[in-house]
Write a structure and sequence with these properties.
Blueprint (H helix, E strand, L loop, with lengths): L1 H5 L7 H27 L1
Length: about 40
Amino acid sequence: MAFANEIGLSPLPIINFTAMLIIVATYIITANILKVWFLKR
């Protein structure tokens, strides 16, 4: 796994992975809300 660590493919710690999922989900939800809000105006 040393090679994987060097090229950045090491498994992310669960905290970082969860944080990344939350950020991505928040971005998608916010984008959808803004899209609906702009279309309604």
